[in-house]
Amino acid sequence: MWTQFLLSGFGLALVLGAMAHKTNFCTMGAVSDWVNMGDTGRMRAWLLAIFTAMLGVMVLEATMAVDMTMTADNAESFPPVRTGNFVWLRHLLGGLIFGVGMTLASGCANKTLVRVGGGNLKSVVVFLAIAFAAYIMVYTNFDYVMFLQWMDPLGIDLTNHGDGSQELGSIIAGMFGAGSGFGMHLLLGGVIVTLVLPRIFTRDFLATPDNVIAGIVIGLLVVSGWYVSAGPLGQALLEEAAFMDQRPQALGAQSFTFVAPASHFLHYLGSGFETRLITFALMVGLGVVVGSFAYAMVQRSFRFEWFADWRDFVAHLAGGLLMGVGGVLGLGCTFGQAISGASTLAVGSFVTFGGIVYGAALTMKIQYYGMLYEEAKFKDVALTALVEMRTLPRSFRRLEAL
Question: Which residues neighbour 62 within 8 Å (Cβ) at sequence distance 6 or greater?
């Protein structure tokens, strides 16, 4: 049963890897197209994936096909996107750090794996950097010492509010004393999807079939991940694991996320290849690489690529390290939070999503003005970028656009 669980994740990720490679689905690219060219095509594909997944998860929950709170301890999902301890600052800062990192590394964690499958050796370095930083965050007390010990006291305790989670319906139900938030969850989710989903399909967007297909298919794959892990198979596996002497790691409700598999990969290697440390997330990461590789070979697009110079190497290395830190701190990445987490209507997922987009866009603005004014001080470049992002008043602008 455990083997079936892992192979199911691998199979879904095979499709994801091939689809992302074929359609050039890239969340960093989506922000770049929007910020630098005003092209919203790939951003709409990303949003379509989010709201397709949201609709699918609501259907699964409404039909009771899944238990989204299911873990080995019967408490929260993995990672705990709906946890009642809403430490908003970790989501915001984690998203910002991840957004900066994915821009420096020329792509998010998922795109990194897709590129690895296509032969990009630069992305191998980025993946190892993500893995190292994520491992330090997950398997040592670095996360607590550097961040959580001062962030936790600023959090909002929702455990006695509504259903005790940070899911949007639970929060609203608690505010109005409406008891269980499940009905409110379905109502709010339905309203949000009904209002937003049709607005994604502009004429220009429909004229780019790859973006439309990518958004729908990737959203459905995320839904399938939730069904595998939180549906009948996942529930049966948890019951079976309760009687195991050594229970497999990271069981429970989960879908696609791409920082966790990096840390799990190093943990697995460091254990001397201990079988029980092979996780659903690790198999998903492997599946993306293999799926991308298969598509590249079929299309004869597989090619090796290396860094242009040392500056390029340092930027990608730093980007990978930042993604590892930010992805763990924010409890997910562009997939783990912005698609998988957001599909559950967890408030923290939307905060992380916003932080990622802002961090990436700000970094792009800084890079842009840094190229326009090579002799300018970083302070002037940064202030101008913040004005461009409408974070500071125009009086702070130091450099004019060319």
Answer: 186
